[in-house]
# Entry
Amino acid sequence: MSEKKTTTSKFGKPSNSGKRTTYKKAAPKPAQEKSTPSKKSRCPYFKKCGACQMIDTPYPKQLRQKHAHVAELLEPYTRVASFIGMEEPEHYRCKVHAVFTHDKKGNPLSGIYREGTHDVVPIDTCLLEDQKADAIIASIRGMLKSFKIKTYDEDNGYGLLRHVLIRIGKNTGEIMVVLVTVSPIFPSKNNFVKALLKEHPEITTIVLNVNDKQTSMVLGDKEKPMYGPGFIYDICCGMKFKISPKSFYQVNPVQQEVLYNTAIEMADLKGDEVALDCYSGVGTIGIIASPHVKEVISVELNKDAVKDAKINAKINEVKNITFYENDATRFMQQMAESGDKVDLVFMDPPRAGSTPEFIESMAALAPKKVVYISCSPDSLARDLKLIAKKGFKVEKAVPVDMFPFTRSIETVVLLKKSSVSVD
# Structure
């Protein structure tokens, strides 16, 4: 059912995406291929955790199930292309978050929240997480007693260490460790840093982040480097990106490159286009597209993301991109009212999808092409129904497996402006 493929693109180095699954006939619906785990799961935390729902489903079967789901939803608009899977689908997460707590005897524990709760499931290693990240978290957990550092207790508010966040630059090898505490005072800070670096000299930077609020958010507003510059770099599609503790950057860097290469290749850029990058985050798509268009206009509401995007453009010496801190819907409405035009819109909305107002303003701007990057086929199908009514036709849809062993699906869709709308 599958054949190996190595994707090489003019937009970046070989992606090593690995596996593309093809279909000669309609794939069975998810209900026909149950992913019920065996009595003994290969993951000892499966029944307690809930994060990787398909951990015991063979990988080709996962892709069939996911393809069937997205194909059924997009059936009114287009035939869904082959699913782009991974050659090595384990240990792909290069952003790893561990919650720290303790047992009844006060011994430190770390793990993840049980799905839908704030109950911590103690975990030593995870089949989805980068193994180096797991090893660093284990070392930190083992050091706490000797440094007399207490883990935070959500019930009574006592303790210091709440979370540890590890971010790894897959293509640079750089590693950032973020220690999230309730206080800016970290006992024996210098000795702790030395001891951690002795165990893991490959760590590039260590950051102290202070989160003293009763919140479900992991990171607080205040942070300070304890070692190194306080950020790392990674490379995607030949471009260099700065990653800070709060920066948005895909957790699967191998498939991130596949995803963005697919989006830009799908746009079939000629070099004379004006492209509008909406929901642009830290500017990843716009910066990667910049060498292949005349101009990129990037719109993002989050001011921290816009700040990072400007830095990333400067790092890559990109001069044909302009960043705006604005609501994308309002910005497009203003452009349309001013008579401005764009040839192409990239849109990468959150899981909830876009909004009718956004689609209305995009239709008023009347781009020739739209490349929609979706992380939810359900909200994608809903949005495509609205976009189609505005005179756009779905030309192609390609699903990319960004999150193996989970039900999550990323899909890249190309739409082209047709002559009539169907309001």
